[in-house]
Amino acid sequence: MKTIDDIQDGDRDALHILPLAMLPFQTAALKRARMIKNVRLESVIELFVEEGTGSGQMNIRDIGNEFGWDDVGSHPDMILLRKLARMPSFDVYSLRILLRQQGIDVENHNSLKLSPQKTRELTEYMTGFTHALIKEIYGSTDVNIESFDDIIALFRDPDIKKAKEQLDVMAKKLGIGLGDIPTFLEDYGDIFLSLSYYRQALDEIEPVIGEFLNSMDEIRSNWQLKQDQNLMKTCKMLQATINELMAEITGRFENFEQGTKELWNDISAKRFERVKHLIESYHTTIGGVLCALSVKIDAWKVLFPSKDVGGPVKRAEFIMSEMKQGIENIQKIEDSAPMLAGLEDDDEDVEVFEVS
């Protein structure tokens, strides 16, 4: 049986993969499987995946028969699978929120953390957040930082008098003891690590999305394909939907980055909680949209790794059979997001956001 220690780093770090070993299933064989989002954005059970053999997937409704459950509809594992299947993303930050909302326990909370390798990858993305913090305390960013753990270590035992004085000032502003600063920094690091994680995911799919949208233009201008009105309508819808989603996601990141810059202008426990709450309230939205877009775009990239592979007709067939399926669900995820209002001043009555 798989345990949390057997979960691959790539599975834990993915947006679209949920290793079932982390969850309290009664059926031992399920713990060796994964739930994944397929290109149609359906949640399916992947019983095995091997190079050369492919992926062995099964619809959730068929799992009970596979394992011989007597009462499929009321079996505890089926009830749990259905709850999981409705989740828009399987990234660790979304899962922290969604599993808690559903009252689902994980067998080891370390399974809801990014792998050490992924955390190291994100160090470059964390630069803006860490430099602001270091400059606030040390007055410069001329320190050797390779990971956020180095930040924590830096402030556990600051080696200059000025830094100690500044940390004391920060502790007073935050209303905490000096010894609690490392815990605050870990909280700070985790929330901005989540932003870095999502930002990296966006950066990875952006070039391929550009290629995909260019293909839409080629298909819509093809003399043979432009006679297919259904195809033309679908291409137009996909272009509009993806462009809108990318603009909205990018706008959210800009808002978050502005908010974090303002945070250090006048740090306080209240302002930090507002920034933290603002970002966390969008985890499931950003995770859901990026999960869906990345699954579709990755499938496109596998089939059409360059513009010279697959002509307009083959691409049009894939668009109609796979790419358009479930696209409306991505927009629903975005539409359900709270309304951004940014950070306000320290008025007790001011809320960080309003729900649309």
Annotation keywords:
single chain; about 350 residues; alpha+beta; 2 domains; globular; disordered C terminus
The neighbouring-strand order within the major sheet is 1-2-3-4
Q: Which H/E pattern describes the elements?
A: HEEEEHHHHHHHHHHHHHEE
The share of residues in extended strands comes to 5-15%
If you average the pLDDT, what whole number results?
Answer: 84
Overall form: globular
Give the helix level as a range of percent: 55-70%
Number of domain modules:
2
Question: For the report, how would you describe the main beta sheet?
Answer: 4 strands, antiparallel
Radius of gyration: 23 Å
What is the subunit arrangement here?
Answer: single chain
Spans of 5+ residues with little confidence (pLDDT < 50)? Answer: 343-356
What's the end-to-end separation, in Å?
A: 44 Å
Can you tell me about this structure?
This protein is of the alpha+beta class. The protein has 2 domains: 4-113, no CATH class; 181-354, no CATH class. The protein has helices at 9-13, 60-67, 76-85, 92-101, 116-121, 127-138, 148-156, 161-174, 181-221, 229-263, 269-280, 283-303, 312-323, 327-335, and strands spanning 17-19, 34-37, 43-50, 54-59, 339-340, 353-354. The protein has a 4-stranded antiparallel beta sheet.
Summarize this, please?
This protein has 14 helices and six strands. The chain is of the alpha+beta class and 356 residues long. It has two domains: 4-113, no CATH class; 181-354, no CATH class.
